[in-house]
Amino acid sequence: MPVVIDTIRQAAESLLKQGALHIIIPGILPSGCVPIRLTIYASKNKSDYDSLGCLKEYNTLGFHHNMMLKETVAQLQSTYPLAKFIYADYYEPVIQFLQNPNKFGFTVKEPLRICCGGGGPYNYNSSATCGQPGVSACSNPSTYINWDGIHLTEAAYKIIATGWLNGPYAHPPISFSVQEILNYSENIVTHW
């Protein structure tokens, strides 16, 4: 995992060298809750799953990756104080969706079930994926968290994007950073 985090840090520094001043660094999803992974790595051992029905091992890995990434974003911010680094969280919103799906408008009875798939416990079947003949989508995708076993639905992405723009899923929120840019630009213009 440190190699991945260091690669992300190097990429951010490379962008700085090319003139970027505002960099958004996204974390990763709780991959133990992704239907493709739940299907491929299904376990008969109930202790492998958490209370949400997600594979604990993969979520633990994702959680630690994101914690290391947050630390790296803080280090980058400290090292380059004239730049703005924003950590964009995928992990926490998806966990919140699964913990309380109705609060977010996801009314499907089984929150880990996908909208567009070809059967199986999560409606994900690697032999019958979304877009293939005979595979159909649900009638109301906005009530689902996951679209096809890999990607979230537009409704889920919209909530995450709004949380990145205004909080609480980005640190600091992107809209706050945009306002800083606008204020900075206005100051430059008024001082010319």
TrEMBL record:
Instruction: Name the Pfam families for this protein.
Output: Lipase_GDSL
Give a yes or no for keyword Chloroplast in this entry: no
Does the keyword field hold Glycoprotein? Answer: yes
Q: Which InterPro entries match?
A: GDSL, SGNH_hydro_sf
Q: What is the lineage of its organism?
A: Eukaryota, Viridiplantae, Streptophyta, Embryophyta, Tracheophyta
Q: Which organism is it from?
A: Rhynchospora pubera
Question: Under what name is this protein listed?
Answer: GDSL esterase/lipase
Q: Which UniProt keywords apply?
A: Glycoprotein
Q: Which family does it belong to?
A: Belongs to the 'GDSL' lipolytic enzyme family.
MF-aspect GO terms: hydrolase activity, acting on ester bonds
